Amino acid sequence: MGFSIYLYSVLSFSGLVIVLAAGLMIAERFLINYGICKLDINAGEKPLEVNGGQTLLSCLYANEIFIPSACGGKGSCGHCKITVTSGGGPVLPTETPYLNRKEIRSGVRLACQVKVREDIYVRIPEDFLNVRLYSSTVLSTRSLTYDIKEVRVKLNDPAEISQRPGQYVQIQAPSPEGPVFRAYSISSATYEPNEVEVVVRLIPGGIGSTYVHNLEVNDEVIFTGPYGEFYLNEDPSVEIVCVGGGAGMAPMKNIIYSLYDRWPNRSCWLFFGCRTTKDIFYLDQFKELEKKHHNFHVIYALSDELGPDEKWDGETGFIHLSVDKHLEHGIPRQAFLCGPPLMIEAVTRVLEEKGLRPDDIFYDEF
Amino acid sequence: MTETSAWVIFIAAIFTNNILLTNFLGMCSFIACSGQIKTSLGLGTAVIFVMIMTTIINYVIYHFVLVPLGLVHLQFIVFIAVIAAFVQLVEMFVERFSPKLYFALGIFLPLITVNCAILGASLFMIIRNYSFMQSIGFGLGAGIGWAVAIVLLAGLRQKMRYSHVPKCFEGVAIAMVVTGVLAMTFMGFAGMVTIQ
Fold first, then answer.
1. What is the ipTM of this complex?
2. Which residue of A has its CA nearest to B105?
3. Is A35 exposed, middle or buried (0-12, 13-18, 19+ CB in 10 A)?
4. B164 CB within 8 Å of a chain A CB
5. Domain for residue A4, yes or no?
6. Touching check for B72 and chain A: CB below 8 Å?
7. Any idea what the CATH number is for the domain that residue A342 is in?
């Protein structure tokens, strides 16, 4: 008798749970099943058929359209913005923190939050449709400074990438909660379509940078790309100004080498701000380029006081002061800035004083 | 002694025996989701609906399954399982048939699964030996009472954003103090009607 009560309890509770679970499964079968829905991209450019009930982001990923997403669909990064022209339902409370009023009016949504329940019509920037998932192997790694590393990979599948200078890739890094993607600018020039190089500063505890820093030759690397909406001005009379600080060198290196491959006489300035002589990298390489192309000017500046054992004959002080000193007013220019927010703010102010329109100043803040 | 009418229990559950302000059940979502009147209204509505439905289901399961089988000691775990499954079902149902309502309640439904006020209502119903009609009155009243309390706090917190709260009291601390004051005001209703 004493024993049977346990038996009854366990049996009846298990029975109840099974009944509830079965009920839920049946309900799911009938309620969540939306059948096949049409997913139309850019007004008929790429019609797809997908299983309803999933999020728009996972539908697009399944069809190899890689919308940038750093958080992996949790709705916490706000990178996966696309325009849904119809069939997306109302904007969710989980999306509103990432959308401004203008975006909400024009139908911009977070792809990871929109569920496909009916035929859906979306607009995706042309650039995202060119994004591919690449598998590659590490060709070489090189320590540039004590905390910055250059990693070059060779593409296996697909074997070529068509990138514009200033664009970035998202490298897949393992983490305890599954793979995550971290964005890094491409530093290899556009004339090397079979390879991709990134320059990464080690952030203590950072998932992506730790992974990249620990890569060794012949390791396999998976990434998606290219992303980014920077367009280099095609008019050769427009001067290009690159201003970087800290580890913000990668996109500039790409811009400069791609630029001189195409227009050997084009005028270009590179300003790069470091703290101490220990932070300097790529300087010799750029000095050599300066000798080859007389319209290329490279200026590095150190912001900290020189230590007793340091030697430096270049500029000192914050980089925006050097920009102010060297650039003349009123020449048509396009600028690309990459570095910490304060530096970008200061340099933007200086460039606007020099007559650049805000549209011609592009920046990558980190 | 005559049975208390369901109507009296309904009124009492809102005012004199407010499940939040006299029993302090469901405090976690009460504090977490009371930043804005709009969200608290959404959560409150969801709680009203789930509370009345789960009290009814749990009443049926308790009196027609657990009591005849002599398994009354399983009530806690059974009630929790029923609430969790019910919330899941409601979420799917609402998502399918009323997208508008889903967008209003959607993100709150999973929160309710772990709201102890819901379980509390089912347990009170058993402890106080309510009949079926009384249970409906109590479930509805307790739900509305909870919703009223969270909307009140949300309104106060919205106003408090513009007042000078001492630094050490900012955020949750002042919300707790205000909850205490609210509870005291609700004690003014005590004695109007009594339910056990």
1. 0.71
2. A93
3. exposed
4. no
5. no
6. no
7. 3.40.50.80
